[in-house]
User: Fold these one by one.
Assistant:
Number 1:
Amino acid sequence: MQWQAVALSADQKGVLDWLARNARGAAYVASSDQRINYLTPTYTNIRAWRGHDYNTPEVSVRQSELGAAFSTGRPLPTWNPVYYIPRRDQNWTPPEGASRVYSNDSFNVWLYQPTTP
């Protein structure tokens, strides 16, 4: 038995598999699901806005920004594309201009590409 194993639901794994096949470049993942955030660098070639406590620069700031993105709809402060991944049961509105690019029974994946400065 592995006491430090991280189990994923089929829907969490589905999101990570989709990202691994489709997400490219200098994009970020921002999810309301901490397991998706934490495992994004393991399963994909893109970065999570807020991952592991010890590996995320300014983790408290990043957590606050992530919380605001899903509670108030404020986009993350980046010019890079962001894959926003809320749970489907959340009452969340994506940033204007975002496109839903994937969904399963538990999650929606929205791609938001900020306009350049």
Note: Helices lie at 10-22, 34-43, 59-71.
Number 2:
Amino acid sequence: MLLAVAATAIVPRMSRSIGQRGLVEAAYRLERTARTVHELAISRRQECAVDLDLDAKAYGVAMASGKGEVTAVRASWLKQERLPEGVRFGRVQFTDGREMTGGTQRIWFHSDGTSSGAIIQLVTQDGQYLVAINPHNGRVTAGPGEEEIKTTEQVDLGD
């Protein structure tokens, strides 16, 4: 009897913990991918993007060619990823004020280090995690709330 009571208290906490761990892992994988794309755009001097498929719960990387074509990047170290079971995209908020909750969205990283910028929300039934891409410097951060992802802006102090 005591074992049954203990199990009813422990099992829900374990499942919540596993779900939270999957959420955090998914956020940090997306963060690492976006950082890699940022570095790739700068090093190749070529526009690159993270393509989010909000409905399919997946994301990938694309590069722009000089002819204006955009092609998906297929490399072992930079491939399309799916979010883990139970994790989904919430909303994607762009710097121009648009908020999207479905469809395919593209976040650009430019060769000068800037980006189109966005805040990407990943959610589970137990919580959320945010991945922020700064439009001014392309810096990518992740955290459970707005406070953790705020980045300090660089200030030009002149010569």
Note: The longest helix spans residues 2-44.
Number 3:
Amino acid sequence: MPNFPTSPWSPPVRSAGNTIDASFFNDPNDEINAIEAGYLNGTARLNSSGSTVATLQAGASTFSVRPVEPPPNAVKVFRQSTVTLGSSAESTISFTEQEFRTNSSMHSTGTNPERLTPQSTGIYLIAAQLVVLSTEAGHRGAAIRDSSASLVASAQVTASSRANSIHVTGLKQFDALGGYVVCVAEAVGASTNSLSTQSWFAMYKL
């Protein structure tokens, strides 16, 4: 029966003239097998002696290379130029430029540029800023909707004589691939609106 990983193995002390029996070979073989199986199968504990992170740090044995993790799925897009929105109650915004994109499939400036598409399941923080230059009376709003047209989040402001900045933030869980989100501009009591290049749309996986 091997001692590893419970305690160190102590071979018996032998002197000249002692008989060498089978345990002289079998015991170390058992220890070697236990060590190999423990580390190859992940069953051996690694927190003995000075192998803990706390002990290594206290002993001034710092890590030579910091661990590098890949960035989470994230994208932020914006308008390259102003756009005139129609008089309809809602207008889905196409975003023609990308500030950053950690996954190339999350947004395209050519194919469905209005969509932000998650590339893995999980919970996402989604935010948008719409800056409307129109000064007509009424209300201005922004909404985030998913691919089933369900509302993720929305915000609304009363129109003023200066640019109207609308911020909207929401959380959505994607439990299956194939969905996406869009940003919608809402206008109530106005004929047309002009959307500034300061408008942006972003999604970040938590």
Note: The mean pLDDT is 81.
Number 4:
Amino acid sequence: MQAPEKIYVTNDRALMYFHTDKLADDDIEYTRTDAFIKKVINFLNYKLDDVVAIRAHGTIIPHRVAKEELIEDLEKYIKE
């Protein structure tokens, strides 16, 4: 059995209920880290060009980096 991408927690003072659908506005949502990272990578692959210009605060000329390198660095950073 595979764990769901998200679970929601309802706190009923005495008990905590876990479910896979949001039942109330004040439910707390937890997301599986690997599912979150996969969604971020898919989004970046879809939205970014092959080369990305990154401008650091205080610099005039942006640093160019390959999209794959940026995504790999981001994935490593999130997993740390």
Note: Residues 1-31 form one domain.
